[in-house]
Amino acid sequence: MCDEIQIPIKQSKTVNPTTKIVFLGLEIDTIKLEIRLPDEKLAKIRSSIIQALNSKKLTLRQLQSLIGLLNYACTVVSPGRAFLRRVIDLTIGLTKPFYVRRLTQEAKADLHAWSVFLEHFNGKAVLLSDKWESSDSLNLFTDASNLGFGGVFQNKWFYGKWDASWSTVHITIKELFPIVLAIELFANDMANSKVNFYSDNLAVVHIINNQTSKDKLIMRLVRRLVISVLQNNLFFRARHIPGIQNVAADMLSRLQISKFKQLYPHMDQDPTPVQQPLTI
């Protein structure tokens, strides 16, 4: 057909109808609904991680090459993004390709985590529909104020009051904390499910969906979130909800427990207990 209408094609980049195709360096399988890293690329990434872990120092060029490979792998191994920031931070201040930087224990820990991810996922990810129907996904609503935090999941709910050590903590961290805590509290109910995390904080929504931030405390929470997600086989997305619609979680965060129970009598009689002290 292309010959008949005189459209030039490149034979080396043309394939017949197929259920598997390599596109932008990634193998797409429409039967298994998987996207995979090619074997040779997977081997190269593993080799680069091992080489880095066996080295005390790396040049800027070596760090950039490693970061490039891991960033590429994040297309498939999405949890890995949370474990890339501390490796990226090693390049700060290095202005010449041959300048060297000693690997920190934190960066090594992240590279070890990457080894686990590649072993666990084997460079594969499941293709999910962009549209999550309410009938096949679960919803978590959380909120935080300067007084406390709270969340609602199905008929379960929890809340807590910030102690003095949290008085100077940024509100973004306070808003992210109850989401991470909720995954740990309701892990058994969320396992093997799609979960929508609803927050009225746009920054938190962005951080969760991208799984990265320049703030070290936020990244500590993000890594904690990712580990819980992996352990319970969750698929998640953060979604923004206007504060005026996040009424139940807002009441809990303001410690208005009596009012919450009056307006939501169908919820569990007692809250899910939160272990103290609160730690990031």
Automatic annotation (TrEMBL):
Transmembrane segments: none annotated. It comes from the Eukaryota. CDD domains: RNase_HI_RT_DIRS1 (cd09275). InterPro entries: DNA/RNA_pol_sf, Hepadnavirus_pol/RT, RNaseH_sf. One of its GO terms (molecular function) is nucleic acid binding. One of its GO terms (biological process) is DNA metabolic process. PANTHER family: REVERSE TRANSCRIPTASE DOMAIN-CONTAINING PROTEIN. This is RNase H type-1 domain-containing protein. It comes from Pinctada imbricata.
